[in-house]
Amino acid sequence: ILAVCFPGSACKKNDAGSPVPVTPTDTVAAGWVKIDNSQYYGVSYGGDIFFYNALTGFVSDNNSNLLKSTDGGNNWSRFAGLQCANMAMTGNGNAYFVGINKDSVYKLVNSALPFITVQPPGADSLGDIFFSDNDNGLLSSAAGLYKTNDAGSSWVQIPNVSSRPYSSIFMYNSQTAWLCYRNKIWHCNGDINNWEMDSIPGTDIYLGL
Q1: Does 173 score more than 50 pLDDT?
Q2: What is the pTM assigned to this prediction?
């Protein structure tokens, strides 16, 4: 078959029309429901939120309110009068809270009162806290970085880590983790005592994990 094109005419393959634009699905926003804030008993601002399974979790603020949910966050009840800056939970239901005064860690066994208060030796201005499993965790402080391997009963400072209250911690396992401070990221890979700083050129904003 011979196709001939003449000036002023158009030669092209079969035209199925312009492609229909594809609208991306917002999978991040999907499923969010605003909860009536009248049940929050005067919750103010700031604080943290953490769930250790699909049902049980805590939320805190800077106004002496620690709330607990046992139905996936649909309803909350006031649990204790604790000003909490950051928190973490482990798979066995234990919960850890950094007090807003940032000098102590408050632990709950199986998410139940009473609090067990732990003051890491030499720690000052505590920051974030994170656990990779039921026993191993990290705690940031202006005095340095602390680790535990006994479910937070005791904390030991990790040597050769810069002293600053890291704003965010994430642990992949007991020996691999990341830290954020302002626009910098530190990481350790396979050795919790050996940290390196990652370079992120052109980053001026504060980072988080």
Answers
A1: yes
A2: 0.76
